[in-house]
Write a structure and sequence with these properties.
The protein is of the alpha/beta class. The protein is 53% helix and 10% strand. It has helices spanning 11-14, 33-44, 62-72, 87-96, 117-126, 148-165, 181-187, 198-205, 237-251, 258-284, 289-310, 320-352, 355-377, and strands at 20-26, 49-55, 76-80, 102-105, 130-134, 177-180, 218-222. A seven-stranded mixed sheet has the order 3-2-1-4-6-5-7. Helix 9 (237-251) crosses helix 10 and helix 11 (289-310) crosses helix 12. It is elongated, with a radius of gyration of 25 Å.
Length: 380
Amino acid sequence: MTIEFDKPIAAHETWNAPTLAVIVPSYNERENVALLYDKVTTALGDTVFEFIVVDDNSPDGTATVVRDMAQRHANVRCIRRIGRRGLSSAVIEGILASTAPYFAVIDADLQHDERILPEMLAKAIASDDIVVGTRYGGEGSVGAGLSKTREAGSRFATRLSGLLTGRALSDPMSGFFVMRRAVFDEVAPALSDDGFKILLDIIASAGRHGGHGKPLSISEVPYTFRPRHAGESKMSSIVVVQFLGLIVSKLSRGLIPTSFLLFGLVGGFGVIVHMATLWFAHEVLGQNFVWGQVLATLVAMTFNFMVNNELTYANKKLRGWRYLTGLLTFYAVCSIGALANVSVASWIYAFDGQFYMAGLLGVLMSVVFNYSVTRVFTWR
């Protein structure tokens, strides 16, 4: 007797291609991400979408929560990143992993109003390249989502970013927007993976022209910014400095990487630390100049390493044993960089005779050398 089995349903017969990919960068958002999914699902109604959470290896177990959601919801995916961090790079990675012709970027903390997603998507489908959720245009407001200090800083950053984008947008600092995937693919190679303001980077990198030589079509939909539901804000002074670095980098048309600017800024403060330590060792402790210089060099290099680890390479932050080995490689590289500084400066001085130019070029040489080599060996 032949036993007949029901013919299995082919995958393509059950698959509904998504119209929209909802990209959610996350770090320690365990208490928020499931609620966000429910709210987005309600808001989008019959729209087929995929929900992609890009988690930077959150210690609170956010990735575990998302994987559990994916067992119950076919449109949920989790991208867990180990050894790298950063909102911009997380968003880029999530978008590139999506399949939909449109995508939305939304924070996991429930401060963005997901109820305007249908209107944003409709505008993008109709004609617009980018649709921005704005807190400052039309009936939009920051509500109770920002303190007075942070609101003032946000408005100042908005005005400053206008110098970079050349666009009259009310909220270019927004992290809430919908975009055509095809337009993003054109811009993606020019984007920076540093920092937190991905929309600003996208607009600036696109210049003033979108695909096929036409100006980018950008519209806005107002909403009221809500208080964070649970967890702690990721905004800090480090984010502010990274933002300023991004502004300068993009004004240079990307010739100067944001990380190099931050590395150089830290080095500048390192010079101050060096001179202060040298003065203290020589004038207060009574050490001779040589030992004072050695101590000052070690203190300055340690300072530079610690700050670069927190600021310049926050997305590759070293911890545990890697922190110690990273410090040792930083010492080694910077020692070689100091020799390169002296060698180049001495050669230029012998050739040109202008000590200030020789000294400046020597310092520049050592900064470029230290940045390039530590990027490979320390924060690889």
